[in-house]
Specification:
With 110 residues, the protein is an alpha+beta fold. The chain has a domain at 36-109. It has five helices and two strands. It has a two-stranded parallel ribbon. It holds the Pfam family Abhydrolase_3. Residues 3-89 form the Alpha/beta hydrolase fold-3 domain. This is Putative carboxylesterase 9-like protein. Belongs to the 'GDXG' lipolytic enzyme family.
Length: 110
């Protein structure tokens, strides 16, 4: 879907994971895929609350939505804010979006 994404093309994402993951592992390593079963899920269950903000144009939005589902299944109270309009780091280039994100975070914390 986003093979030629201008912000984070898939070949770049693949290279980043190849460099970050331990040798002889695949994308089902807990560093890359927190949804896999493993002992780390016990620590996830200890989270009380979590805020997830995502945008429809983000190459990883599907994974973010899967992450929300996993957190909910682990009993975490999740506030998920997904906006179909936007892209990864839009809040870094659009002052109005930056202000909106700050307000969302402020409301979540308070």
């Amino acid at each position: 879907r986003f093979a030629t994404d201008q912000t984070l093309p898939l070949p770049v994402l693949d290279m980043m994971w190849d460099l970050a993951l331990p040798k002889e592992t695949d994308r089902d390593h807990r560093y890359c895929n927190p949804m896999v079963q493993g002992p780390h899920l016990e620590n996830v269950k200890k989270l009380k609350r979590c805020l997830i903000i995502g945008y429809g144009g983000d190459i990883m939005v599907d994974r973010q939505q899967e992450f929300v589902t996993m957190l909910v299944k682990c009993g975490v109270q999740v506030e998920a804010r997904f906006d179909p309009v936007g892209f990864h780091n839009i809040d870094m280039v659009d002052p109005a979006r930056a202000s909106a994100v700050i307000n969302i975070v402020r409301e979540f914390i308070l």
